[in-house]
Structure formats: C-alpha cells, structure tokens
UniProtKB/TrEMBL annotation:
Keywords: Disulfide bond, EGF-like domain, Extracellular matrix, Glycoprotein, Repeat, Secreted, Signal. The lineage of its organism: Eukaryota, Metazoa, Chordata, Craniata, Vertebrata. It holds the Pfam family EGF_TEN. Residues 235-326, 413-504, 505-589, 593-683, 684-770, 771-859, 860-946, 947-1034 form the Fibronectin type-III domain. The keyword Secreted applies. Residues 1033-1248 form the Fibrinogen C-terminal domain. It is found in: Secreted, Extracellular space, Extracellular matrix. Belongs to the tenascin family. PROSITE patterns: EGF_1, EGF_2, FIBRINOGEN_C_1, FIBRINOGEN_C_2, FN3. It comes from Mastacembelus armatus. Its main location: secreted. This is Tenascin R (restrictin, janusin).
Length: 1262
C-alpha cells in the first residue's frame, strides 16, 4: 500500500510435482483504516495480516526454495521489490528488510518490543490486548481508564483530589470528613457533636448555654457552671469536717470564685428535727455552725449559689460531741480504793462511763453508771499504783470527750516488826512485806533518847529481814521500817530492844608459879560495874569466885592464889552491870611443875632407851619428841605412871634431839632435853634370784650408814670361771651375766665404809640349762610349717616341741636331741600358731623358746557378677575355709584401677554402684586375715548403656510441648524419640547425641501424648524412659493477632498465622514478637542489615515484600486489614549498638486504598522522641505514587516510601546505612537527619492487651 493509491501484484510459484499455484491479491485502501471507530476495518486488516503470515508459512513448506536445484520450472512475473523497504536476495530466496520493517516482502512495519507479547502489531503500531496499553503494550490498563478522573500509573489509578476508588468513580469527601464522620457518595455523614461539610465543626447542646466552650462535641464550662450544656451551677467540692465540739461544727469546702453565695442547711436526724439554714458570701469557704445540741446527729448540705441559681448539694452527716464532764475530784484515797466525784449534766443523756487504767495497761476497770450518779467508789485497786481515770458521758451512739485525771493509791507499809537474836553488837530485825509494789524498804534505827545519830538503810523491796551490826553493847535502841514508791513513803512501824553486855576480851595468863596464876583482860565496851572471876580445877574438886572492880584503864588485872602446884584450872570472867551479866570469857591455866633427870640408858643402830624423873602433881601423860639431824620430827606419848621408853626404827648412825614434857589437857610442863647417836647396820645376807643358764640376780640389804662402795665377785667350782666387779655404795642389787650353763658358782660381797672393810658375805648357786637358739620358720603353706633352731651347749636328752592355735588346742611332739629342724603338718589354713621349744634333761628343762606363725590363707572362688545395670552390679562368691577379716575388691577398666573397695569378712556378696555405663570392668577379689592375704580370683563384667534421665514435658500448650531430659553418662550416637497420642497416631524422631530438648509442634488439642526416649550407640540401646502430657485447648481457635496467640500460650517469637476478623479463609502469615513489653506484637516492618531493597514501587508496598525472619514490609493492605479489627497501639523499637530507644502511640490505624492508606496515630510515649506525629493524617507515598505536599517527590528524593509530608521527620523505609541528609533510616528526634538507624522494628498490638494479660495473670492459679 502506497500513499498515491493501492498497488496490485500477482506472484505465482509452480511446483512441478504438485502443480499447486499460490495466488493472492491484497487491495485495502489506507483510508479505510484511518478511523479509530471503524473497528470492523481494523479487525479485517488484522485478519488479512494473519492470513498473509499463514500463506507465507505454507509457501515455505511447499517449496524448498526458488533458486536451488529442486526448483520447479517456471518463471517470475517480476523480481519482488521488497515493498521498497529492502532488497531481494537470490541466495536467500527472499527479502532483506531495512530497519523497522519485516515480513517476506518487507511490507510490515516492526512494532516496539513486539508489543511486549500483550498485543498485535498493525502497520508498525501495537494493537494492545484489553488489559494493557502504551506504545509497546507494557503498561497495565487501569479500570475504566480511571473514568477520566485520574492518571493510570502501573495499572492503578491516581485519582484527582475530589475522587477516589479503583476507577476514580467514588467522590472523595473534603478532608476525609476530618475522621469525625463517614464519606457516602462524596458527602460527609458526621458523628454526633460534629457538623460542617468536612465534619470539622464541633456542635454542643444549647451552644453550652453561652457559659462554656464547645470542644470536640463536649462543653467545657466556664468557672462556676457544670452540666452537659453548662446550664447548672457547679456544686461545691471536697466538703470536710474541720472540727466538732458539743455545740459547734466547723466546715470547709472548695468552690468557684464566681459564686455569689453559699447556702448551708442543717437538720437533726432525730424525728421532728427542724431544718435551719445559714448563707455565707461567695468568697467564704469555711463556716462554723453554732448553737447545736450536744450529742446529736446532724445532716448538713452545702449549696453553691449564683444569682439565686442553686447547685445540687454536697452533703455530710456528723455527730456533735456530748458535753465534757466537769469538776472531777477525788474525795478519798486508800491503798485499794478511790472515791471520785463530778458535776452533773442538766440535759437528758444515757449515762456515764468511768474507767480506771493502770499505768502499765494491765487489768484496767470500766463501769457504766446511770446519768443520775455523780460519784463512784472504785475498789479492788492495787496499792501504790498510778491510775488514769477517764469519765465520758454517753448518749445513743455518741460519747463526750473524756475528762481525765491521774491518781495514785496509797502504799501499804511493812507489818509485824520483830527483833530477835539480840547479842551485845548484833540484832536481827524481821517484818512482813507490804502488798503494794514498792521501790525500796527504808529501815531506820538509833539509840533511845536521841543520843547519837540515827542510821538509815534503803533496802531492796524483796527483803523481809535485816541484821543490825556493830551495835553498842548494853544500850537501848529503837528501829522502824517503811515502804517507798516513786518518792512516796508509807507509814512506818517501829519497836525497841536492848543489846546485851559484851564479855571481856583478850583474856590471857600474864605469869604463874606453882601456886598462883596472874590474869589480865581488855575491859568490856559497855559501862560495867565490875567483873566476876570464877575458877576451879579441871577435876572440879576446887571451886571459887572473886569480884574484881573495873579498872579505869583499857585493861583489868587480878591474881589467883592458893592454887595447887602442877594443876590446870578452868577460868571464866563475866562483866557485871546491875543484875545483868555478860557471857563469860574463858581460858585454862596451869600452875608450874617441870620434868627433870632425863638420861640415856641403852642404844643400838636403830634404838635409844630413855629414863626420867617422876613429875609431882596430876598429869594425863608424858609427851616424848625426837628430831633427827635431817630435820625429821616424831612424837609419842607415854602413860603418866611410866618414866622410861625405847625409841625404835631410828636411822643408823644418826644424831637425835630428844625432849620429854608432862601434859594435862592442853597444858604442858617445862620439857627436859638430851642429844644421842644411833649405831651402824652391816650387810647380813645375799639373796640369789632369776637364775638362768648364763646369769643370776644378786640382792642384799643396804648397810647403815650407807657404804662407799661394794666389791662383788664370783668363781666356778673348778676355778676355771672367775670375775670381780666394783659397785657404787648406794646399790642393793646387781645382775651377774656371762655364766656357764649347768655350772656351780660361789658369789661373795664385801662392804667398804670409809677406812673400814667388812668381812665377805657369800652365797652359792648352779646355773640352769641353756635353751635352743635362733628358732626360725620357713616353708609356710596352708596346712604345714617347718621349724629350725641351733642346738643348746649343755648336754640334754631330747627336745619337746609344743604348738597351740588360736582355737585353744595344744599339741606336743618329742624330738631327738640330734635333730635341729622339724615340719608341723595337718594345720588349719589362715590360723595363727604359737610354737614353743625346750630342751629336757631328766627333770630339768631349759627356758622356753617361742615363735608365732600364720599358715597361709586359702582363696575365695567362683566370683560371679549378677543383676548388671548401667551403674551397678551384684558380685557373689564362695568364701575360703579359713576365717576372713575383710575382702579387698579391685575394679579395673581400660587397664586403669578405677576403685578399691573393702568388704566385711562375713559377706559373700557385694553391690557395686557408681559404675560407668557401657564399660568393661575387670573385678579382682582376695581375702585377708590379720597380716595374711589369700590368692586373687578375677571375673569380668560389661555394664549396659544408661538411659536418659528426668524426661519432662513443659511449656505445654494446645499445639506444642517442650520435651527435655538429662543425657546419659555413656557416650551415645543418637536418641530415638517417639510420641503417640491416645488415638493411636505415632511419630518417631532421630535426635543428635548433643540434644537435650526438642519442641514437639503440630500437636492436637486436648490430647494425651506418651513420649518415649531411648539412647543408642551402634547396635546397643539404653532402657526406654517415658512421660505423658496432655495438650490444652486454645483460648482463640482462629487468633486474629499475635496477642491472641500469646494468650493461647504460644510464648516464642516467630512466624505465626493470624486470621483477619477470625475468618479461616483470611489467614495472613506474620512475625510475632512475644517478649518486648509483655509481647503480643505484630511486627510489620524490620530493618537490620540492608539486604532487602526498600526503594520500591506502590504495588510492592501494597502487597508487602521481604523475609519475615529477616528484613521485610508486611504490606499496606495487610496492615490496614489488621488495624481495622479494633483499636491498636503502635510501637517502634530502634537500636544503635548497645543503645536502645522506643516510641509508642496509643492509637494506630491506616486508611484503605481509596484513602491512600492515610496514617492515624494517637498520643506519644517513649524514649526516642516524637518524630511520627509530624506525619499524622498523611497518605502513603512511593517513588511512583507521589502523594506528599512537597514540591519534590519525597519518596524518590529520599530513597524510600513513607507517609511523607514536606518531606519527613521519620524515614524508616529509607536507604539502609545512608548518612546523607534525610536519605537514610532517620528518626529526627533521636539521631537527626544524618544518621541511618541500623535496627528498626515497627509493630502493633491491640490497645487493651496489657489489661487483658494482667487480668489473666491475676486469675491464673498459683
């Protein structure tokens, strides 16, 4: 087709075989396709184009070419010109088209991108399919082409400002009705309280009566007014009682400053009460109501008044006090009672209440009295106690203020005062203690008549007696006692007494003769008249007394005469005053008579004999005293009719001083004294003992005085063996060794004292036989031992060998004298034997040679391991015949000794414990008895693998449970875990050896499961352990958010499915944060590593992108659908290293697609600063949907997508890690516009979740 007209041409191709001729003519005027409305012509052109393609294809199939050898005979009417858009090639047998043209004859214009496969190319222009448009059919076509009210971008309509909807057919309301109404067909239907085209005007009832301001549909009333329309007077507030008396009530309240008056009304609550009222100026907020009746209940109302308009009242009820009692006095006070009196009341009331409370609050007394009573006697009080007395008046439920006074009862004093056991200087005072609790007892005493000062003692209150000391003898005293408590003293009780005369003191004998005794004494302290001296012999055969006047000095003397010589007298002296007489002072005195003529008549080495002259006068006996030169003194008595005695057992060669005196009672005569020496004691005998074959012990008596040295010698009978030794003089024993056996010896001892050598003392002996020597034991077996020895020197006839076991049996054997070894047989094993050997010659036996030996032990047998467990086994064996003290068990594994155990000898088995599982042990056992050890018996055992421990199910909810256990001790390869429900379904898992827990997921609700666990290694398996648990039911069968998943008991953060509006067909996978701020958050955005590109178009942000476990955006449509389920709150968590902040908003939602997902948030709280409120009410923008109000495209300029305004304070979908101004992940109020926050999570949850979860916690069982 050309501009100047149609071209017609004919092409014929002859196929020699088939003779098929293809002929086609095309003649379509160009003008016929020019009208866009002529769809029929357009469709025809399309069909022709398709037909031409088919004919060209068929032609290519029917002929291999036009120029080759197989070409048919024929001719071309003309060489094709390739429509003027190419050149014909005979090599190719076709046209080579110019750029922009195609087809066999280059007559077809080429369309851009071949119409993207979404349309057909007609004359170089794409005829797009129904849902696509654009030059190359690559652009999705918008519904209804946006109804001519918007632009189609990426298949979505960007509507004009006044329209919305997918096809821009829906009229948009002004300002989206300010979120205070619904947009219906472009018209706002406002909520109550709001009016205007965009519902932005607030409407209040009665225009708040012109007494307030309308805010958000509610009246904010002026000061002093209240009510929905501000038409009422605001009532008073905080009405309180400031004070109450019997006749007044003080009130206080709060009120507005614009009030003109306050009206106070008060009415007695009793029947017939008359209401009274008082008015106060509006600037008054306190008042006192006076003239009230005491003890009466009043109902009080306070009204606020503005120009005669009265508010509702604020009310209160209060009782007036009863009048205080008056004139409380104490009429009388005793130790146990108090009489109290007071003034009467002259109005009606119920009565009185009086109480007596002790200071320690222990045992108070309370009485209620009629109103006519004005005095009261309280009895039963404690003496000396302080009481608080309270008196109140009573009327109905009212009580007066108490009148209070204190009173202290009198103290009762001590009673029954007596004085006893009076001596010259001491008197004992007793009394009965008082009943009252007192602080001290006061005791006073002094001389009667006021002579001298009185003495006062303050004693402990518990005392009831006291001893008066250092009194004046022979004097009259007065004594009194009383009680004191807290400074108050009771009455006293007193009595009088007289001390006795004191006896004379220090009575002594000044001198004496054979017929006189001169006496002296210290005078009595009392003023006495004189002294009576009474004396007599001790035998009582002479008695006399004399009166001696008192000397004015300190002492008085007298001499007793005409006394018997050598006689002892008893003397007593008493002081005399009038008819009173003191106790006597006594002593004994003896007249003189000496012992004389003391002589020595005989003495030996240890005795001395004495003789002395007879003493004239009566005596009891003689006392003989003798003292050695070493200072040792000995006394003895001799009868009075004997004048001689012999001193015995004296030390030889010692000087003694001897005295003799006559005694009568305690009196002793002058003594006679003499000195004398004893003689010397020699050695008299030798004593031989402990005679053996080669030694003897020699003992002798010690000489007196001691020897200087001894010479001890011995000689055999034949003179061949002699010896001499010098010994110290103090020795009395010596051992003579080195003697020959069976030999006669003579022993002699010579004593040397100074220059004196004694005659020898001798003794004879014959030494005994010598014993066998060096007895040894060898070749010890369980039943035999061999004994060997060395033959003795002395001749003998035979040996006698004896052996005795611990069992007590004794056996003997006679052995020839020429034998030096012998084997004992038929012995018991592990038995101690005592073996004795002696040589015998006639009746003579040598000293016994002994030794001890244990026969060897036999060993235990048949050691067996039974009841083998992973950590234990029972060992059992047969014991040896011999007794066993202990068994020793040794356990070895891997050629290393693991343990050594001691088992009691009476046991035949032992329980092994604490073994290692899956271990081969070698067990060795031997027995011991004393020092003996048996042979060892050995066995081997293999412990099996131990099972896991403490298999436990926890964190059980409706669909999962956490199974945990403690691993076995043995090394394992893996675990086999199976779990089975009651309906028979069963699953089996193979777990790694390192695992100690697994969470079972996908469980059925309210189902009991049995879990079994077994460890394995190779072909070995442990015992099976098991546990059971029952899954719970879900609180929410189709959770619509993460909070409901959490309330279902799913506490782990991760990916969950939620169901919009609990519709099972609207499931959405989300990531749930179950830990932050009590959990339950739906995370709808996360930035953490920059691996996900967030600079995306509208469609991506609409449906969401990324990985829920990593970085992602949940999708605007999902966010909108979730947030419309109810009221949600928003939380944004941000981190920079260790620094964490958050921002939360108590309300969060976004609009739908028609509202371009407009952002709505509530009040801010948090630590990051409020950077999101700037974006309040803004639609969402992407780089291909610029919905901001800035001149520039914010999303394109700042590498993200957001609810941009002009442009942002927050840009949490910005470019990760970008620090250029405003292009990174920004939160202005935390890090500014030049810092990209490395971690961000945006999340939402139901606003009321916190209160719901706290209620569930409070209701959960403990």
């Amino acid at each position: 087709m050309e501009p100047n007209g149609p071209r017609e041409y004919t092409e014929q191709t002859l196929d020699a075989d088939s003779q098929v001729t293809f002929t086609h003519r095309i003649n379509i005027p160009k003008a016929a396709c020019g009208c866009p409305a002529a769809t029929t012509i357009q469709q025809l052109a399309t069909r022709v184009e398709m037909l031409e393609r088919e004919v060209s294809l068929l032609r290519a199939q029917c002929g291999s070419g036009c120029c080759g050898e197989s070409s048919a005979m024929g001719r071309l009417d003309f060489i094709p010109g390739c429509s003027g858009h190419g050149s014909f090639s005979f090599d190719l047998c076709g046209c080579i088209c110019e750029e922009g043209w195609t087809g066999k004859n280059c007559s077809e214009p080429r369309c851009p991108d071949n119409c993207s496969g979404q349309g057909v190319c007609v004359e170089g222009e794409c005829v797009c399919d129904r849902d696509f448009g654009g030059d190359n059919c690559s652009e999705p076509r918008c519904p209804s082409d946006c109804s001519g009210r918007g632009l189609c971008i990426d298949g979505e309509c960007v509507c004009e400002e006044s329209f919305t909807g997918e096809d821009c057919m829906v009229g948009r309301c002004l300002n989206d009705c300010s979120d205070q109404g619904l947009c219906i067909n472009g018209t706002c239907q406002c909520r109550p309280g709001y009016v205007g085209e965009d519902c932005s005007l607030v409407y209040c009832a009665n225009n708040c009566s012109k007494k307030g301001v309308c805010k958000e549909g509610f009246c904010v009333c002026q000061d002093g007014f209240a009510g929905d329309d501000c038409n009422s007077v605001a009532p008073v507030m905080n009405l309180i009682i400031r004070g109450v008396t019997d006749h007044t009530i003080d009130l206080e309240w709060e009120g507005s400053a614009v009030l003109t008056d306050f009206l106070v009304t008060y009415t007695p609550s009793s029947p017939g009460g008359v209401q009274l009222e008082i008015r106060f100026p509006g600037n008054t907020t306190t008042c006192t109501i006076t003239g009230l009746e005491a003890g009466m209940e009043y109902n009080i109302n306070v009204f606020a008044v503005i120009n005669n308009s009265i508010s509702v009242p604020d009310s209160i009820t209060v009782w007036t006090y009863l009048s205080n009692p008056d004139g409380l006095v104490f009429k009388s006070i005793t130790e146990t009672s108090v009489e109290v009196q007071w003034q009467p009341f002259y109005y009606s009331f119920d009565g009185w209440e009086i109480s007596f409370i002790p200071k320690d609050n222990d045992g108070g007394m309370t009485a209620q009295l009629p109103s006519t009573i004005t005095s009261f006697v309280q009895t039963g009080l404690r003496p000396g106690e302080q009481y608080t007395v309270n008196l109140v008046a009573l009327r109905d439920q009212g009580r007066s203020q108490p009148v209070t006074a204190t009173v202290t009862t009198l103290i009762d004093g001590p009673t029954q005062l007596i004085v006893r056991d009076v001596s010259d200087t001491v008197a004992f005072v007793e009394w009965a203690p008082p009943k009252a609790k007192i602080d001290q007892i006061v005791l006073r005493y002094g001389l009667v008549g006021g002579e001298g000062p009185r003495t006062t003692f303050r004693l402990q209150p518990t005392l009831s007696q006291y001893s008066l000391q250092v009194l004046r003898p022979g004097s009259r005293y007065e004594v009194s006692v009383s009680g004191v408590r807290k400074g108050n003293e009771s009455g006293s009780i007193s009595t009088e007494f007289t001390t006795e005369i004191d006896a004379p003191k220090n009575l002594r004998l000044v001198s004496k003769t054979s017929t006189t005794l001169e006496l002296e004494w210290d005078n009595s302290e009392a003023e006495v008249d004189g002294y009576q001296v009474v004396y007599s012999t001790l035998a009582g055969d002479q008695y006399d007394k004399v009166i001696v006047p008192r000397n004015e000095g300190a002492t008085t003397k007298t001499t007793l005469t005409d006394l018997l010589p050598g006689t002892e007298y008893g003397i007593g002296i008493s002081a005399m005053k009038g008819s009173n007489q003191s106790t006597p002072s006594t002593m004994n005195g003896r007249t003189g008579e000496p012992v004389d003529l003391l002589i020595i008549t005989f003495k030996t080495y240890n005795t001395i004999t004495l003789v002395w002259g007879v003493v004239q006068g009566p005596i009891d006996h003689y006392k003989v005293t003798y003292t050695s030169s070493s200072g040792t003194t000995t006394e003895m008595t001799v009868p009075k009719d004997v004048t001689t005695t012999t001193l015995t057992e004296l030390e030889p060669g010692t000087e003694y001083t001897i005295t003799v005196a006559a005694r009568r009672g305690r009196q002793q005569s002058n003594a006679a004294t003499i000195d004398a020496f004893t003689g010397i004691r020699p050695v008299t005998h030798l004593y031989l003992s402990e005679v053996t074959s080669d030694s003897v012990s020699v003992v002798w008596n010690a000489p007196a005085p001691p020897a200087d040295l001894f010479i001890l010698s011995y000689s055999s009978a034949d003179g061949t063996d002699t010896s001499k030794v010098t010994l110290d003089g103090f020795k009395t024993r010596s051992l003579v060794p080195g003697l020959l056996p069976s030999t006669h010896y003579t022993i002699s001892l010579i004593t040397i004292q100074g220059d004196v050598t004694s005659e020898p003392i001798t003794a004879s002996l014959t030494t005994g036989m010598d014993s066998p020597k060096e007895m040894t034991v060898s070749e010890v077996t369980e039943d035999a031992v061999t004994i060997a020895w060395i033959k003795p020197l002395a001749p003998f006839e035979y040996y006698k060998l004896s052996y005795q076991s611990a069992r007590g049996r004794v056996d003997s054997v006679v052995i020839d004298s020429d034998v030096t070894n012998y084997t004992l047989s038929s012995l018991f094993p592990a038995t101690e034997y005592e073996i004795s050997l002696i040589a015998v010659s006639g009746s003579q036996e040598s000293k016994v040679v002994k030794t001890s030996v244990f026969t060897a032990m036999d060993m235990p047998s048949e050691l067996t391991a039974l009841n083998i467990t992973p950590q234990g086994a029972l060992l059992r064996w047969n014991p040896p015949l011999s007794n066993v003290d202990i068994y020793v068990l040794t356990l070895t594994h891997h050629q290393v000794t693991a343990d050594t155990l001691i088992v009691e000898g009476n046991k035949q088995e032992h329980q092994l414990s604490n073994l290692k599982p899956s271990t081969t042990y070698s067990v060795a056992l031997y027995a011991t008895k004393g020092p003996l050890t048996s042979g060892t018996v050995i066995t081997n055992l293999q412990t099996p693998m131990d099972a896991p421990l403490n298999l436990t199910a926890s964190e059980v909810n409706h669909r999962s449970a956490l199974i945990s256990w403690q691993p076995p001790i043995a090394e394992i390869d893996n675990y086999m875990l199976t779990y089975k429900s009651t309906d028979g379904s069963r699953k089996e898992l193979i777990l790694d050896a390192e695992d100690t827990w697994i969470r079972l997921e996908g469980l059925a609700e309210i189902t009991e499961y049995t879990v079994k666990l077994q460890a394995g290694r190779g072909l070995d398996t442990s015992a099976v352990v098991s546990t059971t648990f029952t899954t719970g039911s879900r609180l929410f069968a189709t959770p619509q958010n993460c909070a409901q998943h959490l309330l279902n008991g799913e506490t782990l953060s991760g990916v969950y499915t939620i169901y919009i509006n609990r519709d099972p067909s609207q499931g959405v996978q989300v990531y749930c944060d179950m830990t932050t701020d009590e959990g339950g958050w739906i995370v709808f955005q996360r930035r953490q590593n920059g691996l996900t590109d967030f600079s995306r178009k509208w469609n991506d942000y609409l449906v969401g992108f990324g990985n829920l476990e990593d970085e992602f955006w949940l999708g605007l449509d999902n966010i909108h659908r979730i947030a419309t389920q109810g009221r949600y709150e928003l939380r944004i968590d941000m981190k920079d290293g260790q620094e964490s902040v958050y921002a939360s908003y108590d309300k969060f939602s976004i609009g739908d697609a028609r509202k371009l997902y407009t952002l709505r948030i509530g009040e801010y709280n948090g630590t990051a600063g409020d950077s999101l409120s700037y974006h309040q009410g803004r639609p969402f923008s992407t780089k291909d949907r610029d919905n901001d109000i800035a001149v520039t495209n914010c999303a394109l300029s700042y590498k993200g997508a957001w609810w941009y305004k002009n442009c942002h304070r927050a840009n949490l979908n910005g470019k990760y890690g970008e620090s250029k101004h405003s292009q990174g992940i920004n939160w202005y109020h935390w890090k500014g516009h030049e810092f990209s926050v490395p971690f961000v999570e945006m999340k939402m949850r139901p606003f009321n979740f916190r209160s719901i979860s706290s209620k569930r916690r409070r209701s959960a069982p403990v």
